[in-house]
Amino acid sequence: MNIQVFVSEEYTNMGAAIRDLDAKGVIKSNFVLLNGDCIGNLQLNELIDIHKRNVKNDPGCIMTTVFRKASPNHRIRSADNEIALLLDFKQKIVFLENNHKNKQAEIPLKLLNETDVSVHFDLIDTHISICSDKVPPDFSDNFDFENRDDFINGLLADDELLQHYIYAHILDDGYATCVSDVTSYDSISRDIIQRFSFPIVPDQESDCSYRRFNVYLNDDVKILNKTEITQNVTIGRNTSIGSSSSIGDSVIGKNCTIGSNVNIKNSYIWDNVTVEDNCSIEKSIIASKVVIGKGTCIAQGCIIANDVVIDENMRIKEFTCLVNDDDSAHNKEAVGEHGKGFFFEQQYDSDNESDEIDIWCTEAKEEDDASSVSTSFSDSSDDESCDSPAFDEFNSFFNEVYDSLQRGIEEKLIAENLILEINSSKHAYNVPMNEVNSLVLKAILKLTHQAGGDFLVTLKEHMKYMLPVIQNYIRSDESQKDCIYSLEEFYLSNDDTIKPVVFVKILQYLYDKNVLSEETILPWFNEPDYLPEHEVKDQKRLRGQKELILFTKWLSEAEEESDSDSD
What we know:
The protein is of the alpha/beta class. It folds into three domains: 165 residues, Spore Coat Polysaccharide Biosynthesis Protein SpsA, Chain A; 148 residues, UDP N-Acetylglucosamine Acyltransferase, domain 1 (3 Solenoid); 175 residues, Alpha Horseshoe (Serine Threonine Protein Phosphatase 5, Tetratricopeptide repeat). Helices cover 38% and strands 18% of the residues. It contains 19 helices and 30 strands. The strands form six sheets. It has a nine-stranded mixed sheet. The chain has a six-stranded parallel sheet with strand order 12-15-18-21-24-27, with no helix packed on it. Strand 4 and strand 5 form a beta hairpin. The radius of gyration is 28 Å and the shape is globular.
């Protein structure tokens, strides 16, 4: 791919850039126009083909703009993306208005009387447009067009004169949106962590590993005992977290130091941040190189800008914004005696000077009847409350798998039918493959555990019957890793009733049936990954069991003999 970058001090807005490119004759065919803050996994070739069809059917079409369905209470909607859109029967845009200020749209009556139109308030603008080579000259002819919205509104006002039209394409699937404010930053970040934007997910974009309940950890992350990593958490490389801390629904960047007894919820901690012991951070953004002193509590809705230093035992009120400027005096009331920084005063519209902006949707959104909005994608991340647990879908999937396997055992169903049912549930709940591998095995173990009687005898019967199902999902090296760590989690959660020798016998059975290989078992034993829901000492205690040591020693010796035979 050949990429050319054009830079100029005259590029004060998008319109100026396009006018310059037009003067240089750079754009000579269809092109994609999008913001730098767009996030998406769409196939652009398909969108270009749709635009070409629009042009073929209507030579006046010079732009096809992409929209995505999202009901009015959808979490991805932000104040800057509240639009009213009217389309004719050909999907040509006849009216577009961003009505985030007054929540109302004034639609000319003639559009409703003279045109067969559909009215939409269930869409958000992805800020992705496919344009023809006629768009740059239109920008050049209108120097007041500073951005794409100015362009669209200008063409809609003079469409009869210019005979240039803009069409809409509403996505049926795929992910596309843009970061326009803090609310959308939060929502899009959660979508990425919860894998709605796949393949744009943390483990594909960096060298971190993906674990259960959407936890992403780099290999060199250091987490001390009794620290709880719950759900929807990403932790960057070379970051350390002290003991007895709790992290949930948050992102922690690179090279951070988090102390002991720290509570971080629904927050974004950027790179090189220090949070000392006994601190609490709730629904806030902490920018790079910030230092938060011991015992400090940061309430919801706060933004702490780069290089701010907050003294010990401070209480930062909700919706506070702190900044640091070396040229300005530090405000002791804001950051404490030994802190560095001061209050940032938000500039409000004159009509809303007294309003407090709730950037984290902490107040319940107004109820809205969105029953007419139904697409597989828009529903997947639809969220009436900001704190809906991400693993609800996994729990629902697990329950369906459990019921299917239980019925399979009772009715002696063939394995192929069970696999079909499991796959159907997987697609229904949009469950990643590694979770399927883990939850299917845990469902089998739970069935056995709740059956009563001799656990090992019942397990052998269930394993024999379920072996084709297990073999269907545990095939690759990565799925074997999912399998063995699921076994470990199950054992650690039930070690009061399941003996270590039973755990070893399960491992040996799966090894004998070629489900697990020594290449998976030995690294798991010697260099284990951290399990967020269990303490490191419990993992070490399991690996210190005599039966497991003897089994892994036998495996290691067998592997060495195999290597020597091959030589």
